[in-house]
Specification:
572 residues; alpha/beta; Ubiquitin-like (UB roll); Alpha-Beta Plaits; Rossmann fold; 4-stranded mixed beta sheet
Amino acid sequence: MVNLKINNIDVQVEENTTILEAARRNHIDIPTLCNYPDLSIKSECRVCVVEIDGQKKLPTSCSTIVREGMVVNTNSPKVLNARKTIIELILANHDANCTACPKNLNCELQALANKLGIDKNRFPTVLEVQPVDDHNPVLVRNINRCIKCGRCIDMCKNVQSMGVLDVMGRSKDSKITPAYGKYLSDEFCTYCGQCSSVCPVGAIIEKDDTDRVWEALNNPSLHVIVQVAPAVRVSLGEEVGMAPGSIVTEKVVAALKYLGFDAVFDTDFTADLTIIEEGNELIERVTNGGTLPMMTSCCPGWINFAEQKYPEILDHISTCKSPQQMFGALAKSYYAEKMNIKPEDLFVVSIMPCTAKKYEAQRKEMRIDNINPDVDVVLTTRELGKMIRQMGINFEDIQEIPFDKPFGITTGAAAIFGATGGVMEAALRTVYEVVNKEELQDINFTQVRGTDGIKEAEVVLGGQKVKVAVAHTLANAKILCEQVKAGTSPYTFIEIMTCPGGCIGGGGQPYGTTNAVREKRIEATYNVDEDMPIRKSHENPDIIALYDEYLLKPLGKKSHHLLHTHYSSRNK
């Protein structure tokens, strides 16, 4: 242990602890801009400087290790002046039109300027306005707001192994950009949106589609329906000030009804449907010598990654559409027929934790009539939060309403889709019982739970031991993809999710998502599962009725047309 003083307070911490960590553990606030939980130390912004007795210079607290007898002052006149000057210099080269920025009132730079009492900048504006890059189908990059903190680089390069963004130029002329100043769309971008999730300002954001939804809701000739993803019910509460992991399922339904949607459905229903189709596809491949290992297809960021980086393994990926797209296909066919609505008069909206879902809905493969998209608009959790605030909805006190039918009954297996390992566990609950023709004694496959980068499990199917694997983040996906590419993979079934923690940590989730927040959302997800009366997809009576009434059988002609697709190489 190391003993030191911070602001005349005696502090004792472990060796190799930074001053910033030591201060936070003792409830002493040191502001930062480039520092972010779970990412590497960068020391780029220098906002976290402190004064240490015996040193002339002001070191950064995020990168300075404590030592025995150290005396630290975090708020001396010298420190406060330096900190204020740094922020003023950043603001002098920053697009300060805050009210036009999506992160207004949720911006770390804005909050810090307010905290430091900066109501007038001593430095003149030197910003040379650059064009906004909106060529990407999902993300908008506004370099005029960038403060060069490096968080997006760290996330893209080290967590996602993509390296789309980096620093170009030196000193005051440096900027964060794709190689050679190209558009984001010119690079191997998977549209995961993790860069936007960690950006402290509004330099990278998702394309805002709320106006399109408002327009549809106010069009009397359209029947507007919406689906809500599993991960949204354990995260939307944060958008309105509730604690991370708050379960707000039926509050979400009520809010969407208040916004004017004609019907509100649960994506969990088509998550159950995905398990039936995907589980039968796995059984078919194992039984008839199909391509193994089979890899999940629910995550569009992962699909983009495979198409661009590993086109050689596309045959390994399940042909099942994601639950979002299965819902869109059923909405424009089964639901339209059942409600006697013309498909062109039906407008389908998705509420998703993911920015890549916006691109998925635009794909030409996701149109059952080869013309009109099955899902018309995708909103992130953040965008729904914006609409709720626009309408002044008192979310915490709103009267809860259940989801609408005919997609009303769902299961715990579908609820856990939002967490890394959830798709695998849901599939195993069904595949085990279908293949072995016996009931599971314990349906909790805890081996595939948790936040380890790669998880493994073994299950006995038809008298044989079968190995499965789960990976989250593209850096971990890359490890499993290399094995599949080399023909050395020991697994029969692999789940891959692009974002840290799975969909609960998606690029469209509320800002401030850290590992600690992900853990709370994951815990809430499994609590939802535990509380469900039905916890296996193949026992969902509405799914059984859908096959009896409409789809006829898994992997059949109609289900293949509506619920399956194909992917193609997009290697550049």
